[in-house]
Amino acid sequence: MRRTLNHSLQRGAALVIALVLLVAMMLIGLTAFYSSKQEERLARAGRDGLVAREAAEAALRYAEGQIASGVISSNLGFNSCPNTASTGLCSNYASGPMSVLLASAAIATSPTTVATVPSTAWNGGSLGSYSLRAPRYAIEAIPDQAAGSDLSTESYIYRITGWGFGFNSNIVTVMESIYRPAQ
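RESULT FIELD:
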């Protein structure tokens, strides 16, 4: 007795299985590719956020140094921010926080209403090549009415707003600090 195999039922099954496995492997590969691209974007945004934060912090410290050294003082006279602020010094602006009022001016390509930290003070170290532009700041002079302050002499505390930028134009960090000069 002779056994005959039915080859017609088995023909092409290996090809179909191989194609299904190839499609599955391709889908796994594409998923890994897109996942790694997304992780790379997140890492870049995180780095840009850190650079922007460092730049904003540098702007605050630079402005504090300008006030502490007497380069910027209320004796210079105040600018009518948010219209002009070449030195960054603004009178107390009662209609809203400086960070909101000057936001579009700080982000502008050629700001006229906020001061830019000079490149001699901001090269960013290793961060400089990763920053879109130099950090910027505005200083708001607020009459100092601290308890026990001498009312015969007018003194000020300063609210400093600093803007830092990442390499991506969408990454901007805004920081504010209050600075009271040593008496």
